[in-house]
Amino acid sequence: MKMYMRKRNGYGIKKKKSKFKFSDRKEYQRKYSKLRRVKDKEKIACRQIFHTALRNGEVTKKPCSICESEEFAEGHHIDYDKPLEVIWLCKKHHRKLHALSVSTKLLV
Predict the structure, then answer these.
(1) The dihedral sign for the CA sequence 28, 30, 31, 33
(2) Distance of alpha carbon 54 from the chain centroid
(3) Averaged pLDDT for residues 81-103
(4) Any idea where the domains of the chain sit in the sequence?
(5) Is the pLDDT of residue 106 over 80?
(6) Shortest CA distance to 50 belongs to which of 69, 72, 78?
(7) SS3 string of 8-55?
């Protein structure tokens, strides 16, 4: 049986069924985000320090270390104990790095 979500003109877009009811999903998200905040305390603190330094001008964006593209440069942390030391990557290469789970030691 196919489920369709109503559009302005009638039918069309398929709608996926959620495995949670709204209240269950909300509770699950609350628990999950609380768990992540406890588990990734070090990462969160590191990112906050980095973004503050970037906003204050202590760190400047550089081009991608792979393709030299300056568009959408993102900082990738190798070591969360050193929040201001990052590898600059474009969005495309940053996503590939995380998707492949490649060691960032090879990029340095």
Answers:
(1) positive
(2) 17
(3) 84
(4) 20-106
(5) no
(6) 78
(7) CCEEEEECCCCCCCHHHHHHHHHHHHHHHHHHCHHHHHHHHHHHHHHH
For residues 88 and 74, the answer to whether their CB atoms sit within 8 Å is: yes
Helices vs strands, H then E, count in the chain: 3, 4
Provide mean pLDDT across the span 84-96: 89
Sign, Cα dihedral of 47, 39, 35, 19: positive
61: nearest Cα among 36, 83, 86, 94? 86
Q: Give the pLDDT band of residue 5 (cuts 50, 70, 90).
A: low
Question: How would you classify the pairing of strands 74-77 and 10-14?
Answer: unpaired
Asked if 76 and 86 touch (Cβ cutoff 8 Å), the reply is: yes
pTM for the full predicted model: 0.60
Q: For residues 40 and 75, give the distance between their C-alpha atoms in angstroms, rounded to a whole number.
A: 18
Polymer length in residues for the chain:
108
Q: Is 82 left (phi over 0), alpha (psi -120 to 50) or beta?
A: beta
